[in-house]
Amino acid sequence: MNMPEIKATMVFERADGKKSTVSVSDADPAVTAAELNSAMDLILAKNVFAPDNNEFVKKISGKLISTTTQDFEMSV
Q1: Which pTM does this prediction carry?
Q2: Phi and psi for 48 in degrees, rounded to 5?
């Protein structure tokens, strides 16, 4: 049986007004909204990302995405 892949996705607004997304693969499916919110606050406070030299200035959204993949054998 295939287990779902869980990814945490966080969207931020940059200083230039554009949006940037940070995704974390293999996220814990038990992550709460409060924990994701805190992680986003920490990313903002530490200023660890600056795509195209534009700092993240605020949080836009965060979510967990669950993906299940079903592989099939192909006959030749």
Answers
A1: 0.83
A2: -85, -15
